[in-house]
Amino acid sequence: MRYTLMHRDLEVLDLEIDTQTFAITRVYELFAPAHIPIGVTLDVNGRPQRGLLNKWWLGRSIPASRSGLREALERLNVSSTGVLLLKCLGLSLSDQYWVRSCNKPLKWADINFFDNEFSSDVGNALFGRKSQSPQIDLVSPDNTSDGWLQKKWAILDGQRVLIKGGSAPYYQEPLNEILATQLMGRLGIAHAVYSLGFEGDKPVSVCADFIDNTTELISAWHVYSTQKKSNNDSAYTHYLKCAEALGIPGVSEQLNRMLAVDFILANEDRHFNNFGVVRNAITLEWLGPAPVFDSGTSMYYDKLPCDINAQRVVAAKPFASTHEKQIKLAGSLQWLDWQSLDGLAEEWEPALAQSRYIEDDRRAALLAALDNRITLLQRIQGEA
Predict the structure, then answer these.
(1) What is the greatest pairwise CA distance in the chain?
(2) Alpha-carbon gap, residue 15 to 31, rounded angstroms
(3) How confident is the model over 234-280, as pLDDT tens digits?
(4) Fewer CB under 10 Å: which end of the chain, C or N?
């Protein structure tokens, strides 16, 4: 079926989408080259490379690794995440792209999720709940949410918020988001603000969308993909070179602060798709780095209490294999006010105490490890 890739109300290009595989099978006329998704380059004929365009398009769908996905699809009576992707026309709450059927003259103002209400049926199914309505509504930004943990979008007091769960057995990731909020607030680092909620007895994090109907989040991976990496450049250097070539301001400073935060939190999953930059979707002006978000896979979230040890080597991403190696890329930490971190563990403790899945021995081990991670970073910085 023929569609037009849209950027708000601007026609970017015409393409063919197979309604069985949901892949792009053909690219037709290109209308607005400047508005092609970042990281999708042109071939020798001046058309977007179909493989890269497909990777971008299919990457908008819910990943197969999402917890409880198979059961959710059964509840929704759909065969695949591709059905959901096309059902919502690829619309998301992270950017302004969508696809319009060539025989349906829809307008951005009438369908975007920033200004229009959306169904909660998909989100509830992803959290293991059945729809209360006899007619399931599949039009939802949940159809284009990424990541492996349970999550859903909701409208609370007129604000779009992302509600995100944790993983068994400790369901600790939402509590780690609270710590990240507290930590970065003390350090004055631009960050997404998370609060604590509950789905049944399980903790969830609640975070307001930091993207609105004029801005969009571009992942670090798409920035990283704008140029071919030299064998002489590290992943860290290459990313900064790509950002500089695009003219994105402030990337190095925010990136280095994020690496320091990830060290303290022992973040094990800071991949290229959970940090990035923000641009104006209308003017294409680069506004700067995105606030730091998605820090839940941290603080020994899946380790037994006896294995929580701040001195142990913690795997890191995306620039080095361990945090001890990765933090060296961040250079001087003279900006970091160590005194501002005094009492951080005590501030975090009430959130931990609210979860029935965090028992006393685990809570004590986590609080001690947090203090020790700060001390360890201080020692590393002193040795630099």
Answers:
(1) 65
(2) 12
(3) 999 999 999 999 999 999 999 999 999 999 999 999 999 999 999 99
(4) C
Q: Which two tokens stand for residue 319?
A: 């620039």
- With 0-12 / 13-18 / 19 or more C-beta atoms within 10 angstroms meaning exposed / middle / buried, residue 130 is exposed
| Domain of residue 314, residue span | 215-383
191 belongs to a structural domain: no
Could you identify the residue written with the tokens 């303290």? 264
Q: What is the pTM of this model?
A: 0.94
Which tokens sit at 227?
């140029």
DSSP letter string, 136-193: -----GGGG--SSS-EEEEEETTEEEEEE---TTT--HHHHHHHHHHHHHHHT--B--
- In this structure, are 115 and 41 located in the same domain? yes
Distance CA 91, CA 144 (A): 7
Tell me: do 15 and 138 sit in the same domain.
yes
The 10s digit of each residue's pLDDT in 283-306 is 999 999 999 999 999 999 999 999
Domain-embedded: residue 182: no
Domain end (from 150, 172, 207): 150
> Going by C-beta distance under 8 Å and a sequence separation of 6 or more, which residues neighbour residue 152?
120, 122, 123, 124, 126, 127, 142, 145, 162, 163
Q: Number of folded domains in the chain? A: 2
